[in-house]
Amino acid sequence: APAVIVAIDGPSGTGKSSTSKAVAAQLGLSYLDTGAQYRAITWWMVSNGIDVADPSAIAAAAEKPEIISGTDPSAPTITVDGTDVAGPIRTQEVTSKVSAVSAVPEVRARITELQRSLAASAAYGIVVEGRDIGTTVLPDADLKIFLTASPEARAARRSGELKGADVNATREALIKRDAADSSRKTSPLAKADDAVEVDTSDLTLQQVIECVVTLVEEKR
Ligand code: C5P
Predict the structure, then answer these.
(1) Complex ipTM tops 0.95
(2) Measuring from atom 11 of ligand 1, which residue has the nearest CA?
(3) CA of 181, closest atom in ligand 1
(4) Does residue 1 register a pLDDT over 90?
C-alpha cells in the first residue's frame, strides 16, 4: 500500500495527541507532534535570553537551534541541539510563550520545512498533528481531521493532565492561547475545507480513536 498521510488539527484539549499517537500505533504509521516542535524552538529562545515579545529577534534566531523529532508513536522524542527537551517544553513558561514565538513567519517557515521532510520520508505513512497541517503544511494529505470540543470538556481534560491545576485558570489560559493561534496572520489554527470535523466533547478517547481509524481505513 502507498504511504498514507493523515493530518489532525484542532485546538488544545481536544484529545489530538492521545488520538494521533494511538491511531499511528494501531496502523503502523509514524507520528509527528508539531506542537512539540514549536514548544522546542520556544524553549530554545527562552533559554538563550531572546525576548519573545520581539518578533525581529525571534526571526533572526529562527534557524539557529537544531530540532530533531523521533516519530515512533510508542516513544516519540524531541531534542534541541542534542538535548532531550521532552520535559522542559511542557512547563507553564513555555506554554505561555509558545503562541508568540509560533506566530513569527520565519519560525513557521523553518518548522514547516522540517515537517514536510519528515512526512515525505515516512515509509508507511504518518499521522501529523497540529494547528495548520491540513491547511498549510500538508494540503494534499489523504485524510484531514479537525477535532473540536466544548471549552468545558477541554479545560477538564487539561486540568486532569496537569493533576490538580485549577479548572477555571486552565480554561482561561486555553481560551487565550487558542484565540492567539486562531487570529495570527500566518497559517492560523483553522479547519481545512475538506477536513472531517469530529466533536469529541461527549466521546471517550477509545471512541475517537476508532472513528479516526475507520476513516483512515476507508482511504487506504
Ligand atoms: O499542541 P500544543 O498545545 O503542544 O501546541 C503548542 C503551541 O504550538 C500552540 O498553542 C501553537 O501556538 C503552536 N502550534 C502551531 N502550529 C502547529 C502546532 C502548534 O502554531 N501546527
Answers:
(1) yes
(2) 99
(3) 12
(4) no
Residue 55 counted as an annotated binding residue: no
15 labelled ligand-binding: yes
Q: Per the structure, how many domains does the chain have?
A: 1
**pLDDT at residue 164 tops 80:** no
Decide: pTM greater than 0.90: yes
Using a 6 Å cutoff on CB, does residue 125 contact ligand 1? no
102 lines ligand 1 (CB under 6 A): yes
The C-alpha cell at 17 is: 495527541
- Does the CB atom of residue 130 touch ligand 1 within 6 A? yes
CA 178–ligand 1 middle distance (angstroms):
9
| Coil, strand or helix at 132 | coil
Residues whose CB falls within 8 Å of the CB of residue 30, separated by 6 or more in sequence, listed in order: 24, 71, 72, 73, 118, 122, 124, 125, 126, 127
* pLDDT tens column, 134-157: 999 999 999 999 999 998 899 888
- CA 214 – CA 144 distance, rounded (Å): 13
Q: What is the CATH number of the domain that holds 198?
A: 3.40.50.300
Q: Which domain holds residue 137?
A: 4-219
